[in-house]
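hi! just following up on the protien thing from before. the input was this:
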Amino acid sequence: MKKQIHVALVSLGCPKNLVDSECMLAALAEAGCVVGAPMDSADVIVINTCGFLAAARKESYEVIAEALELKHAGKVRRVVVAGCLSTRDREVVYQHAENVDAVIGVNDRERIVDAVLGEGQFSALESQPRPYGRGSLGDAGRFRLTPPHTAYLRVAEGCSQKCSFCTIPAIRGPLRSKPMEMVLAEARELIADGAKELNIIAQDTTAWGEDLGNNEKLSALLRQLDALDGAEWIRLMYTYPRRFDDELIDTIAGLDHVLPYLDMPLQHISTAVLRRMKRGVTREQTETLLGKLRDRIPGLAIRTSFITGFPGETDAEFQELLNFVWEFQFDAVGVFEYSPESGTPAAEMSPPIPGTIAARRAEAIMAAQREIVEAVNQSLVDDRQPLEVLVDGLDAKGRCVGRYYGQAPDIDGQCVFTEPQPPGEFRSAKVVDFDEYDLIVERTTE
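and the predicted 3d structure came back as:
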C-alpha cells in the first residue's frame, strides 16, 4: 500500500488567507493526504504566507526557516511556500530560503496538490487573476480551520481602490465579486456545516457587485443572506467609507441577523493625509458618515485601524488624528506603523517619518484607546444589562470564552465566562468585571 502523505499547513496573515488555506487543505485531503499534522511530524510542510507588510514578511520568512530546519534534519521531505509572499517576491523567496521545494502564487491555489505530491522544484506563479463563475474557483468544500459555529464567507477577491500605500491590487489583482448565487450557495454550505456566525470578508467588502454589471449592491446581498435559515449572526468586515451609502446603512439597521458591528479601516482623519493616501474621502465626509451610522444603527460597534508615520505626516496632522480618536470613542482600534512598500506611490513620497516617531505615535493612540475601552467596559459592568454571548470554547489559558456582537473573532476582546459553557451555544450573560480588553461575564438564568 502506498504511504499516505502527512501534511502540516501553517496559515499566516488575514482571514482571506485563512480561507485559501482551508481550500488547499480540502484539495489535499481529497487527493488522499492526511492533513493537520504537526510541523515536526509531517512529510510536507505548506506555509501560506502573508506579504502585505514588512512585519508580516518577516514572520513568513521565520516560519519558512523553521520548516527548512526540520527538512535539513531529515524530519520533513518537502517544504512548499504559498500565498501573497510567493506572488510578491518569488525570486526573493528562492534566494532567502534555499531548498524551498515549491512556490505557489495566490492565483494558482488549485496547483497545491501538484506542489505537495510532486518531486523536485515546482513553481506555479504565472496565472493571472480570474473572475468568479464559469468554472473558476470559489471557496466551496473547505476544510475549515475555524470553530464549527463561526466561519468566514468571502464575497470578493482583489481590490480596485489603489490606495497609495497598499500592495494588495498588485498581489491579488483588481476587484472580482462572486456572483450572488455563488455567495449564497457557499453560505448555505457553511450553515449546513454548523456555522451560526458568518463573517463577511473581502479586500473591499463595500465594493461587492460593482464589477458584475447587473447593478447589484452589497445591500441586496445582505438581504438575501439575512433570509437564510440558520444564519444567526452576519458580521461585516473590511468595509470602506468611500462606498458606504444611505441604502447600506438603512439595510444594516433593518435586518434581523446583520449585526450592529462594522469593521471600517479609516487609516487617518486628516484630509491632507487622506489625499496623499488616495483614500477618496475627506475628514468632513468621514465624520458625516460616522454620524449617520451611529444615529441610524442602534447600538452600533465600530472597529477601525489607523496608520502612523505616513510620509509627510506632521505633528499637527498626527495630533488631529489623536484628538479624533479621543472625540469619537471607537469601540476598537488597531494601529499600524507605516511600512514603505516597493512599487507603491507612497514609497516614493517624502519626507519619510523616522520609525521611532511612527512607533511613538502609534503607542500614543493605543494608550488613548486603552483608556477609552476601560471606560466603556466599566459602563458595561455598571449597566448590568445582559449580553447575548456566542460561546467559542476554551482558550489557551483554559478559560471558557465567547463573544458578544461587538467582538469579532481573533481581533477584538472576548467574554470570559466564570463557569464553563457549551461551545457554539448562545448564552445570556451579564458583565461582572473586565480585564483590559476582555469582559468577565456570568451566565444569567433564562
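The CA atoms of residues 379 and 431 lie 10 Å apart.
Residues 6-124 form a domain with the Rossmann fold fold (CATH 3.40.50.12160).
cheers
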